[in-house]
Amino acid sequence: MGKYIDFRYFLVSLAIGLLYIYISDDHRKVMVLYPTPDNIKEYQYKDKTDTCFSYEFKEKACPSDASQYHSILLQK
C-alpha cells in the first residue's frame, strides 16, 4: 500500500483539509426547534434580533366562535 500512497502528501493534505474545516463556518448547521409541551422548559430561543426568550405553557379552552382565532406568522 505504501507504493500507491505517499504518506507525506497524505498527511499534509489531511492537515490542510482539517484546518480548512476548523476555520470555515460552512460545517456549522442551524437547528430549528419548535416548542412542544414536552420540551418547553428545556430550551431558550433566540430570534433574529438576538433576543433570548422562553415560552410558558398554559392550557386554555378553544373559542367556539371562529372569528376569535388569530393567525400569527412565523419569523423568517
Overview of the molecule:
This protein has 76 residues and is mainly alpha-helical. The radius of gyration is 25 Å and the shape is rod-shaped. It has a domain of 48 residues. The protein has a two-stranded antiparallel sheet. Helices cover 22% and strands 5% of the residues. It contains 1 helix and 2 strands. Keywords: Membrane, Transmembrane, Transmembrane helix.
Note poorly predicted spans.
Answer: none
Mean pLDDT: 84
Give the count of helical stretches: 1
Shape: rod-shaped
Q: How many individual β-strands?
A: 2
Q: Structural class, from helix and strand content? A: mainly alpha
Largest sheet geometry: 2 strands, antiparallel
Strand content: 5-15%
How helical, in percent, are the residues? 10-25%
Rg from alpha-carbon coordinates: 25 Å
Q: Strand-and-helix sequence, N→C? A: HEE
Largest beta sheet: what is the strand line-up? 1-2
End-to-end distance: 52 Å
